[in-house]
Specification:
- This protein is an all-beta fold.
- It is built from no helices and ten strands.
- It has a single domain, classed as Jelly Rolls.
- The strands form two sheets. Strands 1, 3, 7, 8 and 10 form a five-stranded antiparallel β-sheet that branches.
């Protein structure tokens, strides 16, 4: 038996519009661990607002890095750019994936896929 064997539901899509300048929970691992193989954050307005991408356990935030090696902790974006996160992410029970924009209107779209670990 492999130590990496687990029961899971098939990959499920998610999408979220970021429409404010507060931390927006995109995925929450309330009852099960979530595995996020990839997700993408797109700036949709032509602005250069700041973006923060983190996981949050209710007390601590851990800032994520994208495929180009940038850490997204209040980092300015390029207008109309897309940022991919394909290194895989495990969200433990009680934690969440959050996106924060510095613009009051948000102006980000987030989409990707996740897997619910069931056993």
């Amino acid at each position: 038996m492999s130590v990496f064997q687990f029961d899971a539901k098939g990959a499920l899509p998610f999408k979220q519009r970021i429409t404010a300048n507060t931390a927006t929970t995109v995925l929450s691992a309330t009852n099960n661990v979530l595995i996020v193989p990839w997700f993408q954050v797109n700036e949709i307005n032509g602005g250069t607002q700041n973006l923060t991408v983190d996981t949050y356990d209710g007390t601590n935030a851990v800032y994520l890095g994208d495929d180009s090696g940038l850490t997204w902790n209040v980092k300015a974006v390029t207008a109309k750019a897309s940022y991919r996160f394909t290194q895989g992410l495990v969200i433990p029970i009680g934690s969440s994936l959050r996106i924060t924009s510095s613009d009051a209107a948000g102006y980000f779209h987030v989409h990707g896929v996740y897997v619910i670990v069931t056993g």
